[in-house]
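For this section, I looked closely at a protein sequence along with its fold in token form, which I now present.
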Amino acid sequence: MDIEHLDYRSLTVFESVSRHLNAGLAANELGMSSSTVSRHMANLREVFQDVLFIRRCHGFVPTDKATQILPIINRILMDYQELKSSHTQFDPSTAREHFTIYAYNEFTYITNKAVNEVILPKAPNLSFEVRTLSSDCSRAIENGDIDFAVVYENFGGDKLIGELISPTEEMYLIAKEGHSVFNAEPTLENLCRHPYFELDNFDDIPCPLLSQVARQHGLELKVAGYTDNLAALSRHLMDTNAIALSCNAFTREYLKLVRNLRTCTLPKEVTRQLIDLIDVGRTVGNYLVYSQINQSPTHNWVKQQLLDTLRAEWYRNLGQPVPEL
């Protein structure tokens, strides 16, 4: 084994392939071509005199040697990152990495805006993939397959970190222009007089919060349907007599652009009752979620750019200054 031929980039390739068990995914994450990953893998096999990963139909399987050296390589990479972050100056204009971001439907536009208008002008060599999130992605974030997720309360995992973008303090009633629900104060009793369409981004709540609060007061809410898509919700509301609720300032801003739809803020007492049903042991709100396994300078820089931009845009939509969180 000629350890002198071992280099930092080969170690990062080994770590990424070990995590993904797929050379293509490792190439995407590291911003390399598949041929470059193959070249580094060939170097690693020569250094360690072992095939390291056996190709199977479902992906790579690490050999015993690969399993034994992975913890050592992880420690070396952590020391590299500490040295880099503590004793070198980070320059985003020279950074080269690929980032995968998943966001709920209401957050995808503003996330793309942050990427294209804030991050890429400063770091043009980075690449991004922003996708709509509609299911639990906690394991993929923990493993590093997804770099960031912009979510409501629905995430968990020992290796996950969630940084608050904004707390949930307002909720908005949505219905078509001229709907009778706007003729009176939107109390709980008045809301329950109309069919309700749930904007549901996640399947962890058995029934809408509004329905649960209604039952606590001896009322019944007729649920007309569910959707996780803003465009679909808009059509449903325009074509029927249904109402909907949202706690998202970006949703309200989008719906202002939709002809014949109207929003208004719910009374604070109704909002409080709805939010009180969400028991997650932390501030109810919107979060940027990521894994603690990736602490590279570029990852940390992108994280801060996303947080700052999403927070600023949220409070700009509310017409408020950005608070210290």
